[in-house]
């Protein structure tokens, strides 16, 4: 598997979220850069601590894609709102390598006056700093500049110590001017971008991104979890080593990220799609391909994006043929089909084993999917489904716990 940097991961997440709503383009990066300057001026954080806090700052609004608050978050005088903060903090907690920083996200829309009432959940100092950085970015995006007097007038929200820290950092690094010129981007990624991420970290980030699609389609989340689990079992039976298995799991976790841009009424339609609707749905493959392109991860991109290609060239988005499709891509393609067959929707029941196997054999006969991999699947069908069900159930339990925690924590923090 090709080496992946933190910059690659951030680019994937930013591109995917921007495909839904481009109003947040650069906002996360601006907030992270302001945070970088403030923490350097503070002097009490190690380089690794600053790197992790800045990374979580980039993703601070990931929960906004779940809630209706997205339409108001960039308003200068927004009302205090916590739904997206709660939701985003739980995605960071459960599905990222930054789980210990989840409360930084949780508290970034709380003010100094709020802390005494919710002290039991331990909102950290960095959460209030993140809220200040978030507000400074919004001021800059709205007014084009950030005047010290404006912040000094908001002592009802932010502590005098934090405002003073901001003023010192801005005078030293002149970061508000860099925000307007765009020169902050290179400086931010010079600090963040070259750090290599481990395979486990990549998988965590991939799940964070993929599962956040549930604000549009919970069915898609459940399907993706099962595709990842089936792909892993089939690839393991094929004999791939641990590195290749991780590559396949990451690719399977990302295989439907293009659905972020598909209209919800198509993703969650209770009946079969019309021809025109299916043509729109098919675009998710090329959208996913574009999101994952030009990031030095072509291996993952191709495995993830080719899951609807067919050996005879009749698939999409590129009409590739057998010689263009790797074993890894063929595994994810078969896993995608198998998940769809055994999954239930409002308009179809889960297919039984005999019907599922018959459909797979028909597709082999028509030269659509790999005969050897289908034989391996059928020979080990019960084992694959059993193990994949156990693995996907564990992930679904985590996902369901997130949803339960969301409701409990939102009620408390509100």
TrEMBL record:
Its EC number is 3.1.4.52. GO terms for molecular function: cyclic-guanylate-specific phosphodiesterase activity. InterPro entries: HD/PDEase_dom, HD_GYP_dom, HDIG_dom. It comes from the Bacteria. Residues 198-393 form the HD-GYP domain. Keywords: Hydrolase. SMART domains: HDc. CDD domains: HDc. It holds the Pfam family HD_5. This is Cyclic di-GMP phosphodiesterase response regulator RpfG. It comes from Clostridium vincentii.
